[in-house]
Amino acid sequence: MEIKLAKSAGFCFGVKRAVETVYEQIREQKEQKIYTYGPIIHNDEVIRDLKEKGVCVLETEEELGKVKDGVVIIRSHGVPKRVCSMLEKKGIPYVDATCPFVKKIHRIVSEQSARGAYIIIIGNPDHPEVKGIQGWAKEDVKVVFTAEDAQAVTVEEGKPVCVVAQTTYNYNKFKDLVEIISKKGYDITVLNTICSATKERQEEAERIAKEVDAMIVIGDKKSSNTQKLFEICNHACNNTYYIQTLDDLDMNQLRSVETVGITAGASTPNKIIEEVQNNVRINI
Ligand code: F3S
To answer: From CA 27, how far away is CA 10, in angstroms rounded?
Structure first.
């Protein structure tokens, strides 16, 4: 049995940086309470560990506004501008662990919006990163998720249009939606802000999935980048399994295969990937 482990499996630069920021704060802030605004990553194992170390997750802006002591950590997804302004106004100390690639989109949207552009964000409207990006634009901003959304875009004549993407968006879908919008004849600037970490992970996963008899995708069920990774792998290899941890893997399903591919989403810790890899090797 041969195992092909994707080199790009697991934590990306931004997630690694955000998780390390929390552990750094745990070491530094001995007396102070530590909060994260939303779970720092979509991974139950990591969240449990942080909770045991006293880190509190705040879910709403209302909860955030009530913080009296301690420090708030902003996760890699980033937040709308009004959240940073609110924290500053109330004098609540915070550490901004927004991924620099997401921060760059905030800057683009701010600048383009200030020059009067209509902002189109290609991405999932429910994803916190997209909500965050949206919050750096002035009034004219629209999230496009489906071909229907793209068809429905109407921009007042003469207004420039700026298109950006959620960093974890699928490149091919992005291209398709941009094509629909481009046909409308606007003065359009398209900035492909899809993070290369995602693209590389997706391409490598697809390449491996095409070569193997079975493919394992590891990641939290709530992680959108893992869900996309699964979609891509499942398309290339109809023997693809989506697992959160080793416990979800039924080794019997792999008994008759000769090659197994393994990849993992951006929020999957190395420990879990290694555990799966070692157990597949030992048990099959
Ligand atoms: Fe940042 Fe890319 Fe990861 S945008 S959070 S390095 S997927």
So the answer is: 24
